Amino acid sequence: MLEQVTYFEDYAIGDGRETTGRTITETDFVVHAGHSGDFFPHHLDAEFCKTLPFGQRIAHGTMVFTIGVGLTATVINPVAFSYGYDRLRFVKPVFIGDTIKSRVEITDKEVMEKRPGYGRVTERLTVTNQKDETALVADHIYMVEMRP
């Protein structure tokens, strides 16, 4: 991992990057079910899923979100802190064998009036599958220090 200081003033709307891909596996489904407690048959029962419109098991949306965010975690910015996420949407299902990648783009920035010395930067996360179809979108909000 790379550490890079990027102050609020250094972020520019439209800046972005794309990650490498990661293939979703059966192990991902099982481990996420164990961590989350979500053992719904839509994720784990192959026979049940054959009766549903998609015909196969669907990845947990929270798992796709977690992996999608994790793919973007390649740079540590010691002056930026995650403030939360907004507008999380599961647009298209992800299946075992799909390869997902993430794109992030700065979509907004504003000074935080109630927190002197900080600004809020919004980064749009888009997770796509191997066909470049959007599977998930969310806005990641950062609280970022301003230059001293």
Give the secondary structure arrangement, pairings included.
Elements lengths: L1 E2 L12 E3 L3 E2 L2 H11 L4 H4 L1 H4 L11 H12 L2 E2 L3 E11 L8 E13 L6 E11 L5 E12 L3
Parallel strand pairs: 1-4
Antiparallel strand pairs: 2-6, 3-6, 5-8, 6-7, 7-8
Overview of the molecule:
The protein is of the alpha+beta class and 148 residues long. Helix content is 21%, strand content 38%. The protein has helices at residues 26-36, 41-44, 46-49, 61-72, and strands spanning 2-3, 16-18, 22-23, 75-76, 80-90, 99-111, 118-128, 134-145. Strands 2, 3, 5, 6, 7 and 8 form a six-stranded antiparallel beta sheet that branches. A two-stranded parallel ribbon has the order 1-4. β7 (118-128) and β8 form a beta hairpin. The radius of gyration is 18 Å and the shape is elongated. The mean pLDDT is 97.
Q: How would you describe this structure in keywords?
A:
alpha+beta; 4 helices
Biggest sheet record? 6 strands, antiparallel
Strand content: 35-45%
Cα end-to-end separation: 25 Å
- Figure out the total of helices: 4
Structural class: alpha+beta
* Helical percentage: 10-25%
Give the mean pLDDT: 97
Q: Over all CA atoms, what is the radius of gyration?
A: 18 Å
Query: Would you count the extended β strands for me?
Result: 8
Silhouette: elongated
Q: Uncertain segments of ≥5 residues (pLDDT<50)? A: none
Short description:
Helix content is 21%, strand content 38%. By secondary structure, it is α+β, with helices and mostly antiparallel strands.
